Amino acid sequence: MFMFSTCIEHLQAQPLWILLLSSLGFLSLLKQTISLLKWLFITLLRPPKNLKKYGSWALITGSTDGIGKAFAFQLAQNGLNLILVSRNPQKLKSVSREIQAKYPYTKVKVVVLDFSGDDVTAGVGAVEEVVRGLDVGVLVNNVGVSYPGARFFRRGGGGGVEESG
Ligand SMILES: NC(=O)c1ccc[n+]([C@@H]2O[C@H](COP(=O)([O-])OP(=O)(O)OC[C@H]3O[C@@H](n4cnc5c(N)ncnc54)[C@H](OP(=O)(O)O)[C@@H]3O)[C@@H](O)[C@H]2O)c1
Hints:
Layout: H1 2-12, H2 16-45, E1 57-61, H3 66-77, E2 81-86, H4 89-102, E3 108-112, H5 120-131, E4 136-141
Parallel strand pairs: 1-2, 1-4, 2-3
This protein binds NADP nicotinamide-adenine-dinucleotide phosphate (NAP).
Residues 62-68, 86-88, 91, 113-116, 142-144 line the site of NADP nicotinamide-adenine-dinucleotide phosphate.
């Protein structure tokens, strides 16, 4: 209590500009500290989201290589069953085997679909058949389709995108 009143007396003895500057410094330090604590919480302490609450299946397009394949393994590790969609049936079979060897309880279904092929409608129909009745909660739509000379949309690069209405 004594310390506190001494502190108040000390502050009252300071010129106003020093008090204002110190308050600004204090607020800025507080802001930095809160940001740091938030970052520490998000990076080290926050528990991961339970993706199974959205549904027990995940559908990943472009799942036999790179980012899509990595997603497939991560989602299987998180206990989700997988629907893998890609062009190449051999690669699909091999990735599906790899996943089941590592996560034996994961159910895996595969759909061969070439998004740049002639019969995308039939392929999408095949995907519909496979997902029917399954509780799909996560979609990783990782196959990128572009058009010649792609540019940022705001620079007039809307080729292939149709406006409606
Ligand atoms: N890697 C990066 O640094 C980066 C950066 C920005 C954006 N991206 C985008 O992220 C996505 C994945 O990149 P990535 O590096 O992981 O690519 P990747 O290693 O080449 O893998 C592409 C995956 O997509 C499948 N695929 C390719 N064309 C397809 C088609 N026409 N129909 C169906 N499946 C097809 C491939 O499987 P199959 O051969 O079995 O069909 C493969 O599983 C792409 O859209 C890419 O543009 C990547």
